[in-house]
Amino acid sequence: GENVEQHPSTLSVQEGDSAVIKCTYSDSASNYFPWYKQELGKGPQLIIDIRSNVGEKKDQRIAVTLNKTAKHFSLHITETQPEDSAVYFCAARNAGGTSYGKLTFGQGTILTVHP
Amino acid sequence: DADVTQTPRNRITKTGKRIMLECSQTKGHDRMYWYRQDPGLGLRLIYYSFDVKDINKGEISDGYSVSRQAQAKFSLSLESAIPNQTALYFCATSGSGEQYFGPGTRLTVT
Questions:
Q1: Which of A35, B50, B88, B102 could cysteine-pair with B54, CB 3.0–4.6 Å?
Q2: DSSP letter (8 states) at residue B39
Q3: B25-56 tens-digit pLDDT
Q4: Chain A residues with CB-CB distance to B under 8 A?
């Protein structure tokens, strides 16, 4: 099955700096890669996603890049703000076979943005 | 009102007890999921259901069972709770794209 590795496990930055979280996946058939943000006491919420036919996607201060050859994808947050502090999860999904519709998650990154 | 609700939000139970966690959704989605979250391990899939008559095991189904009572309801049961089932449990639902998560149930087994 799919295996997703996420790094770093914790990330501390100063307000205004950039933050980068990286994930690798093992199944070359995976074709959908979402990123979720989990705030304290809440369930994960989708913040951005990318499909395998696209190399980069941007939404205001967040962007995701995908390298299918190397099987890794990254989340980039620019101009970080204290409200960006949360746990971030990457995930991968295979659109076919027995894995259809299932997400495999990374281990999570605790991002802390210091004012 | 929230699209995905979970009850209870917090529960403390004793080893050997049977416990049920309930999930309801108002998004009209066919697909529903139960995940377990442990520190440093991310979200791991326990069971999933793609419609009312479809139930599938995830990567960590041992010690758990589920029931899909209706399109909108998906319950998770621990037949005989043990301390290493102490965790945060999330229900999720999806159509063909994004998964929407409930607020979670914090379960402690003493």
A1: B50
A2: T
A3: 999 999 999 999 998 888 999 999 999 999 99
A4: 1, 4, 6, 9, 34, 36, 41-46, 49, 89, 101-108
